[in-house]
Amino acid sequence: MGKAKPKFKGPQKEMTAEQAEKLRKWHDVALSLRKPGTVDWREAVVSRTRVEYFRGKDMAEHLKSHTATIDNALDGIDTASMPVDEQVQLFMTVMIQMGLAIRADRVEADRTPRQGKKGLIKWPKKLLQLPGEDQVWNPKAFYIWSFARPTSPWLYLGSISIVLLVAAVCLYPLAPLKLKWQVISVLSVLLILMFVLIALRGLIYAVIWLATGRHVWLLPLFFADVSVRESFSVLIAESVDDDGKPVERSPFWTRLVAIAVAVAVVHALRSVAPDRAATARRVKRMNRSVMEYFELLSMDDMAKLGGASGDFVSEADAANIDLSETQPGDLNEDATGGTSSAADGDTRANPDQYREGAPNQQIHDEEL
User: Fold this and answer.
1) 129 by DSSP, 3-state: which?
2) Which of 30, 71, 152, 299 has the least CB density, counted as fewest CB within 10 Å?
3) Full residue range of the structural domain in which residue 22 is found
4) How many CA atoms lie within 13 A of 51 on its CB side?
5) Is residue 28 domain-shared with residue 138, that is, in the same domain?
6) Between vectors from CA 136 to CA 131 and to CA 141, what angle results, nearest 5°?
7) Where are the compositionally biased (Basic and acidic residues) regions (predicted)?
8) Looking at the structure, do residues 101 and 41 belong to the same domain, yes or no?
9) CB-based contacts of 355: which residues, under 8 Å, 6+ apart?
């Protein structure tokens, strides 16, 4: 693989052969510092651009334990008589002057501790590039690599895996029925666990808030813009303000009003809720619709459903039925051409008699 070329912002000046050779030398040194097991780095966003950066203290620790890197880069300079801290500072000053490392700082939102944390986040997800006059070496600062690393074989493997995953999703309708059930089961379990966790967070918050007025959250970083690992790093914590202090407790009358509103909402929902039998029928109908949508029914299951429901008409077939030529009166005419009456089972004339006379037919229609 070819070496990545350094990228510079602003107008480029013409370099002499000696300067170009010096730049290539320092670029090779910088590439050696980006190999696995050298200086730790992370990804961040700077002005809507994803970059890779390192912490100054990590670079200083690595250079102090690998002084040969400094000696090879600062060829011609007597570094043996210099303290190691001065060697690191001189090395990084040249790196910054070459444009290989650019100093950056935290954005305003990351300059205060996160909820449940005492210190600042170690690896921010967003950074702010500092102006030219602030481009100096500071072990406590962050520095952006201004050039791209050589493409890793893992990147090609990841790209191929994504393509195969998309192809597998597109081929889902052709997958065996057993595999479909496994995929839906795994995704359903994950979705249920997520909703249960969200409901548990809300329940714990509501109970503690109603009892004490404090704003305490389970997994406070669950919805924060952090990695999955950091989302579960804090189990429970109290909400804090911009100064890092706990949020002021809610007064008693506010909690009392919240309890009254909650009771009223629960009572209103109970008054309009359907009975258990109707709910069971609707759940059964929705369950069958979901299985039909994801094509989880075998031919035997579809035949059983068709036999149990008589002349079963699927949604696709029902959509193709042309009712434009059907007159409203035709639906009330019997096979002999006469109109139906209450004695013949006209539901509009006597709906109560129809319900009592054909309860099985009513339930059958509701199930469909």
Assistant:
1) strand
2) 299
3) 17-151
4) 25
5) yes
6) 85
7) 345-355
8) yes
9) 362
